[in-house]
Amino acid sequence: MGNVIKMNNKKTFDVHPLDGDFMIDTKTILTDCDGVLLNWRDAFDAWMMREKNIFAGGDVNLYDQAVRYDLPPEEIFDHIKQFNSSANMGFLPPLYDSVKYVKKLHEEHGYKFTVITSLSLNQFAIKLRIQNLHNIFGEHVFDEIVCLDTGADKDEILKQYAEWNPGAFWLEDKVKNAIEGRKHGLRSYLMKHVHIKTEDRDGIPVVANWKQLYEEITGS
Ligand SMILES: [Mg+2]
Hints:
Layout: E1 4-7, E2 12-14, E3 28-31, H1 40-52, H2 65-69, H3 73-84, H4 98-107, E4 112-117, H5 123-137, E5 142-148, H6 155-164, E6 169-172, H7 175-183, E7 187-191, E8 206-207, H8 210-218
Parallel strand pairs: 3-4, 3-6, 4-5, 6-7, 7-8
Antiparallel strand pairs: 1-2, 1-5
Bound molecules: magnesium ion.
Residues 32, 34-36, 173-174 line the site of magnesium ion.
């Protein structure tokens, strides 16, 4: 499956499509991390100001950081890669009301979460991300934390996880990835942000916060 690092609580291993160490479990929720579980963007903006003296001078209502910062794609990518490999990954804050409802879904309804994140393949950044997620949400909430290279496409990994978790919920803030998940039968939802535009999202439902997603999942 290429450059993917997958970690559970105890071990690291490369994903191979023929791995047998998974279970089909309808109580798995697949989720992106940045912009869904954690507030990546504000931390990135603060780091850019503090460390680089660069301010988001473009259209801040869009997803693409090159447009938000009005910088060439290669330049902004270098900044993102550096930020995503930094110690900041141990300390990103939760997004919206994620803590309350992730815990409720796990503790009261028995759901577990598999995180699919295009963070970085830097081993230390991955360890910090895992520690951060465990500190904020609790260790037992997560089945797996799957890290792809910075900004990598999720097409292949979603196809694989959709086979392992048919019809699972899939939460994203990147429209392309939500549409890709739906293509493989996942129940895609988008977390509301200013960059989610009605005209672009091809009918993928948007939730304003985790409370709304909780209500969708539990039917309450
Ligand atoms: Mg995201």
